[in-house]
Amino acid sequence: MADEPTTGSPRTLKTVSRAFDVVRALEELDGARVTELANHLDLSKSVVYNYLSTLRAEKFVVKEGDTYQLSLQFLLVGEYVRYQNILYRIGKPEIEELAEKTGEYAHLATEQHGLGVNLYKVSGEKAVGSDYQVNKLQRADYLHFSATGKAILAHLPKERVEWIIDQYGLPGKTEATITTREELFEELETIRDRGYSLNDEEEIKGLQAIGAPVTNRHGRVLGSISVSGPVRRMKQPEYHEQLIESVVNTANVIEVNVNMEESDDDFPTFS
Amino acid sequence: MADEPTTGSPRTLKTVSRAFDVVRALEELDGARVTELANHLDLSKSVVYNYLSTLRAEKFVVKEGDTYQLSLQFLLVGEYVRYQNILYRIGKPEIEELAEKTGEYAHLATEQHGLGVNLYKVSGEKAVGSDYQVNKLQRADYLHFSATGKAILAHLPKERVEWIIDQYGLPGKTEATITTREELFEELETIRDRGYSLNDEEEIKGLQAIGAPVTNRHGRVLGSISVSGPVRRMKQPEYHEQLIESVVNTANVIEVNVNMEESDDDFPTFS
DNA sequence: CTGGGCGTTTGTCAAATACAAACACCTATG
DNA sequence: CATAGGTGTTTGTATTTGACAAACGCCCAG
After folding, report:
1. What's the mean pLDDT in B205-229?
2. Chain A residues touching residue B77 (CB < 8 angstroms)
3. Quick one: DSSP state of residue B168?
4. Going by C-beta distance under 8 Å and a sequence separation of 6 or more, which residues neighbour residue B24?
5. In chain B, which residues have their Cβ closer than 8 Å to the Cβ of A59?
6. How far is the CA of B122 from the C1' of D15 (A)?
7. Which residue ranges does the record assign to the HTH iclR-type domain (chains A, B) (predicted)?
8. Is the pTM of this model over 0.90?
9. Would the Cβ of B16 be found within 7 angstroms of any atom in strand C?
10. Which of A131, A208, A246, B259 shows the greatest Cβ crowding within 10 Å of its Cβ?
11. What are B142-165's pLDDT values in tens digits?
């Protein structure tokens, strides 16, 4: 209705965007019926019905009785994407070993669209937490308040970090969260200097994490790893040093293996 | 299999379908550039460019240099969908225990759109196979030649089984695969009678699997589990009986727990 | 310096979608 | 048992919106 000037650059297809609005709504509502979705999205029933029918024909949505749900197709495609990721393929067993050795939670993360995504999580023996925490990869989250995130930020080009901050800001999570540019850039330099990152109750009160980046041979950061646990335990001096050693060492092992494999990866895709 | 005349009941949105064509092409090609995709999909460059831009704006695609890839967004949504599935939430730890106890591969599967989807896999100590096999959930596959699939089919309404056969046929995979309706329906009755299913080299030569269904209190089948291993080992009489016992027992435990949690309404399922 | 490859942008017309209203179906309830 | 109000689904139609080809700018190799 309002005359949007035909926005110059990339012409975005509204029909496709709306399809993903439907997907997001189905996620938010944990499945929904036609009318419910129509209200939620401010579209007419018939339009929503057509989107759902199409998504269903594409097998990304299932209908159970009268309610529509996202289908496991997302999981299948998602697992494919994860398996394509070299950091995941190489890092997974190493992270498992790290969790076993330290007994703490271990994480493998990467960056996408300026946010952090966990590729894999394992909990060691000492790690106690809700089943939910361990089993669910939560949504993409800010990079500036996690150990994995800060390790990544520290090795991203400065202009990219600036872009990310412009895009998402630096929202606080606890009293310890870094929320200003200057502080953050200082922190990132410290991280680069000492080779590991620390999340000192900046995300969750009582939780500390130690992270280290994984970069490829060209200096590009592929992602990062971390271990985390209760501050009380994590802060004991000798234990702390030991953990840093383990994390940095594991990151190093992954790095070497990734770079050995990636030499073949520079070829253009065949046919 | 022929195209439907456009005038039909559910009006399907071509723009949305094409967006998913792009997604599938990106999966097939392991990422691609604009021109490559345009050729692959028989669309003009500019059109493909617009689809990619839109998918990127929606964060389901990332651009690395000049090549476009599916993003981890699929994994995040997929993990959400999996976690929504009660069979996964309840079954996962039980399947892990089953794999540990038996030492074999253990699977947790469900049905969607008439095909089988693995929700979870674990490999026990004795199970040796390629890393790939274990780590990757492959695409949705036929139900009629796996132990999990047959256990599911055996407890689906007959008309639904008919629909599935009409839709996908009964393609052979090995010499042992069941490829006729009559044989299959007989087999399904046997499975119902004895309470477990057997895949005797019907999918992969040399591999046997034992499966059992998980149904809810209304008799609707939610999915199934299985263990699998080399025929030589699996066929040893006492071991065989022991495995059946373990599988049926685990399925039962999951069933009880699911039904305790599922106090609410349930709808009959359609595709 | 030049040609051909690429990704991106633009103008235009036809096609594909949004909308509302009608339809069919349920299941509560007076 | 009929009716009212709630679904999901279908249809006709106006027009928004996406498809196309051609042009643009860029980069690299010959």
Report:
1. 95
2. 23, 27, 70, 74, 78
3. H
4. none
5. 112-113
6. 55
7. 13-72
8. yes
9. yes
10. A208
11. 999 999 999 999 999 999 999 999
CA distance B199 to B106: 14
Residue with tokens 């995709």, as numbered in its chain: B37
Separation of alpha carbons A163 and A247, rounded Å: 29
Domains defined along chain B, listed by start: 14-75 (1.10.10.10), 85-261 (3.30.450.40)
Cite the beta strand spans of A113-244 per DSSP E: 115-123, 197-200, 207-215, 221-230
- Partnered with residue A68 across adjacent β-strands are A32, A63
Structure tokens given for A204: 């969750």
Judged by CB atoms closer than 8 Å, whether chains meet at A113 and B69 is answered as: no
Q: Which of A11, A72, A89 sits opposite B112 (nearest CB)?
A: A72
Distance CA B206, CA B204 (A): 6
The letter for the amino acid at B100 is E
pLDDT for A214-266, tens place per residue? Answer: 999 888 999 999 999 999 999 999 999 999 999 999 999 999 999 988 765 44
Amino acid type, A38: A
Structure tokens at B181: 């309706």
Question: What's the full length of chain A, in residues?
Answer: 271
Between CA A108 and CA B179 the distance in angstroms is 44
B43 touches strand C (CB under 7 A): no
Using a pLDDT cut of 70, give the percent of chain B over it: 90
Count of residues in chain B: 271
Residue of A nearest to B85 (CA): A72
Nucleic strand C within 7 A of Cβ B15: yes
- Count Cβ–Cβ pairs < 8 Å, chain A vs chain B: 184
pLDDT of B4 > 50? The answer is: no
Q: What are the phi and psi torsion angles at B70 (to 5°)?
A: -70, 145
Percent of chain A with pLDDT over 90: 83
Q: Which residues contact A84 (CB under 8 A, 6 or more apart)?
A: B30, B31, B69, B70
**CA quadruple B72, B94, B230, B146: dihedral sign:** negative
Q: What is the pLDDT of residues B7-55, one digit of tens each?
A: 456 899 999 999 999 999 999 999 999 999 999 999 999 999 999 999 9
Please identify which residue in the block is written with the tokens 């591969």: B105
Mean pLDDT of the B174-186 span: 96
